[in-house]
Amino acid sequence: MHIKRIVIQGFKTYKNTTVIDDISPGHNVVVGRNGSGKSNFFAAIRFVLSDQYTRMTKEERQGLIHDGSGSVLSAYVEIVFDNTDGRFAIAKDEVVIRRTIGLKKDDYSLDHKSSTRIDIMQLLENAGFSKSNPYYIVPQGRITALTNAKDSERLNLLKEVAGAKVFETKLKESQKEMIKTKSQREKIDEMLKFIQERLADLDSEKDELKNFQEFEKDKKIIEFILYDRELNDVTTAIEAIDGEYQTDVDSSKRFVGELEKREDTIKELEDSIKAVEHEIKLLSIDENEKSDLLRDVAKELYEKSAELAELKEFFKDQTKSAAKKEQLLTKIQAKVDKNEKELASKEPIIQELKTQEAESNGELSTLKTKQSILYAKQGRYSKFSNKKERDQWLDKEIGHIQQVTQTQTSSVKVTETEIREIETKLKEIEEQADDLQDTINGPSAQAEIQELEQQVADLKRQNITENDERKTLWREEARGASILKSLDEEVRFAQREVNQTMDRQQSLGLESVKRIATRLNLSGVHGPLGELLTVNSKYRAAVEVVAGNSLFHVVVDNDRTASILMEELVREQSGRVTFMPLNRLQPKDTIYPDSQDCVPLIKKIGFDSSIEKAVKQVFGKSIVTINLERGYELSRQYKLSAITLDGDKADKKGVLTGGYQDFRNSRLETMKVKQSKVKELRAQEAELENVRRLIQEKDSLILSINDQISHASAEFENLISSKQPLKSKLSSMLNEKFALRDELKYKQERIVKLRSSIAASSTKLSELEAERGSAFIEGLSSEEKQELARLGTDISIVQKKLIVIQDKISQEENECESIKIELNEVLKPRLNELMKSKTSNSGDSIKFADQSHVEELSEHVESISEKKQVLEQEIQDFQTKLSQKKKESKKLSEKLEDSNDQQRKIIKKLEKYQHDSEKNLSRRALLTQRRDDFQRKIRELGALPEEAFSDKVLSSKTSDELLRKLTKITKSLDKFSHVNRKALEQYLNFTKQRDGLVERRKELDNSEESIEELINVLSSRKEDAIQKTFTQVSKSFSEVFEKLVPKGIGKLVIEHESEEDEEDDNEDEDHPMTQSEESNINSYKGVSIQVSFNSKHDEQQKIEQLSGGQKSLCAIALILAIQKSDPAPFYLFDEIDANLDTQYRTAVANLIHELSGNAQFICTTFRPEMLQVANSFFGVMFNNKISTVSEINKEEALGFIEGQQGGNNGK
């Protein structure tokens, strides 16, 4: 075994990765200038292989890490060993040991796997790196220390090599155990003496104790009978109370079940009422749309019917005289006057009804606002933990409402200004139109003019058609906006329901995550896990119990997305959320039981394959079982969590969890409802957006048609005679007048809505300000609950009243609209035309009509008439459905009120049962305490004699008789107050202790003999090891010294305490020690070195008499001798030849080269002799405070040495 490669990084001066390859298994020499890092290279190897660098402080570890430019936070040294000889007990040809050190770590690794220092040191020791022989690594200064060592220090060194410390440690442990054994034996003797004395005393107390025990037995029997009677009475009373309590519990369960059914019924009724009211709202919207459409159709029908009648009248009465026209003019004028009077009489009625409608709408808005505020307040307290949080939220809401109110007030002022401007403009246009109507009187139209009129008429018809379609779209927009508002409220309510199933921080966090993901456009956010699952209601309870709060964990694509979201949440301080990054989840595949009694829960959950990891993480280790007992067996057997359909759970550790759970407010169900509502809301938003897009398209098309009409009208004006220049202008004015009327109506309706909204906002503001000043109370007060109930009734009344008013308004407006259409679109135009015809026979376009136009108009009138009938029928159907739904809503409301009454009655009954149960439980607690006292007293009686259960005489006596007898026995027992009641028990215990102590003393005697034998054996082995080691090292020292100094001789001599022994040692130093000498090893006081450098026969000198170089040579010889007696796989010598003369350096180099045939040597030197015989050469360079090592050839190595010596000579 030898070192093949060394890798150093960050260690001392070796900042960069330094790799030393191709290290020879024989003799290797490392050269370099002083301070270049040779010793650091040597220290790097010691850092891995020796125990020197252990238990270091932070400062000491910092000292081992490179300290220069650039930050180095850790360092490591890696040594690769050739293990082809198998000295390491690892089945590999190469073994890699690495040690890494940092400011807070110190780690070892073996073959790139983490290991401990103890394991590495054990591995090295097993491979031949003995702890008792530290001289396979010889750092600088070790030679000098050994050179100047005392004889006693050299003796200790030989003992350490021989392993004497191990024997001494074991001897000390054995001697300590011997002392401990003697101490225990003395204590046992003392205890035995005390027990014998105590047994003698207890023997005299036994007879008196027997008499006492007879009385004591009778007392126990009587006390037992009395306690047992009392216990039976109390137990009977407890059983009676338990029966009553169980009856109450059963009744309570029945009523609780009925209460739950009632709650389900109430919830169903409330949902049904909401659904019916939603249908009523939609039907009302549809009815209003159809009514508006009917008015438009009626207008068109009146117009076309009048036109058709006129045409027919024209062709029929074309030959009649002007007198006939005059008669017709008079007739039409009379009808105009009649219609105007009728219209004037209806306008005050409509105005009054609209005033009532506005008042009712305002009242309804106020009531609904109050109701909404109370509902919001009821759900709001779950969001806040104290008044401060609530007031902060209220301040924010009040500010928002004030801002909205201010905006709406500004809008009202702007709209009022716009209305005044429109009214002024409308008045001007009407006046101008009247003037033009009076002044226009031109010649008859020419054929070309008729063609242009026809073109304009076609464009106008197209314009009317497009306007009708746009009005239809407007109605759809209004209907969609109403539905959208309703859906938005439902989504908010569903969100509140979901929020109530989690804590406030979690709900706030989920809302923030959605907002942040939308703002940052994060596509990798899938959403809460619960929203991504589809679960059958049968397995919903099981899924919720297994998942718990994991249902609200947000699934994201990777940890980067999660980090972005968490940073934003922290920055905004907006809640807490747990994320599940799919790229980090690695759920293990689960083996499920092959049983008909269970099914994997994950198979009953629907989910997208993209989130499979998240679902497996939560539900992969769970199964659904038929019952908890079977689930417990399977969970323990397969290490899974078993869950029943009712939510009872058995986990893999055997913990059972179960009992009643209220799943009425199911998390999955509320999340599912919310998702459904959000989906409907998004669909409605898309549909409304599409309608608005179509409206924009219609606006553009109508604008284009209007442009075409204007262009055609301009051409018409250029073609008509000079007497008709104002006709086109009049037509334009009339169109503008109608448009302004429509716009005026829209503005007036808008201002009514704005004022209603301002009133509602003011009400809400007042309520919030009142709540702002109120105390922080959980939930609503009783007055607020009563007000909430009253508001529901008032809203229903106002809604019914509003429906009646709206029906009347609709009826009156329809009638007025019909009169207006007939008056403005039929009678007045006809009257004007007759007036014109009276003064001039030209310019009347009706005379250009032909019979084909009459037929076409007749078909059109018939089509419109059919459409009007269909609309009337549809409106009637809507009204019928509305009536039915209102009746249904009323009936459901009555059922809801009845169910609420029944629920209140049940709650009162449950409260009564609860009160009775509490009383019974209180009585039972007192009785249970008495029962426990009697049971305790019976237990305190201890073991009872058989007579306590079979003595019929005592059992037949009354309690009073037994008490009298018990009193007599107690008095008799008073005489034995001095008796030792535990005499017999103590006698038996002491006898048992005596026998045990005798047995223990025998064991200690045997143990003492074994320890003495072990001490003798260890002493003998220690002496043998020391003697054997000295003999081997002494022999090896002589051989090594002779090779280093062929003309000389060297020996090791053991020094004894006595002079005579020293003389004997000197006389017999060439002979083995005798038996008597071996037994006197403890008298050794040191090991001296005696050498001769010039003769094998001259008197030898002690090491103290030698020169410095000679001393160093002797120290090297001793080190090599020790290594020969206890060889290691390789050796590290750091400048061991530094203090030698040239001839001895050569001898040492040759000897090391000779020894390198059996072991690897790595030496550092700055002398050339070592280079002459080495196999491989490595140079250490130092630049910019960084050391590097590279393989060099022999000439380069000699160049290093010559440069070093030249530098030293120069100095």
TrEMBL record:
Q: What family does this belong to?
A: Belongs to the SMC family. SMC3 subfamily.
Which Gene3D superfamilies does the record cross-reference, listed alphabetically?
A: 1.20.1060.20, 3.30.70.1620, P-loop containing nucleotide triphosphate hydrolases
Compositional bias ranges of the Acidic residues kind: 1057-1070
GO biological process annotations for this chain's record? Answer: cell division; chromosome organization; chromosome segregation
* Recorded coiled-coil stretches: 185-212, 259-286, 322-370, 412-504, 671-701, 854-916
Recorded GO CC terms: chromosome; nucleus
Pfam families per record: SMC_hinge (PF06470), SMC_N (PF02463)
According to its UniProt entry, this protein's organism is Wickerhamomyces pijperi
Q: What's the protein here called?
A: Structural maintenance of chromosomes protein
| Entry superkingdom | Eukaryota
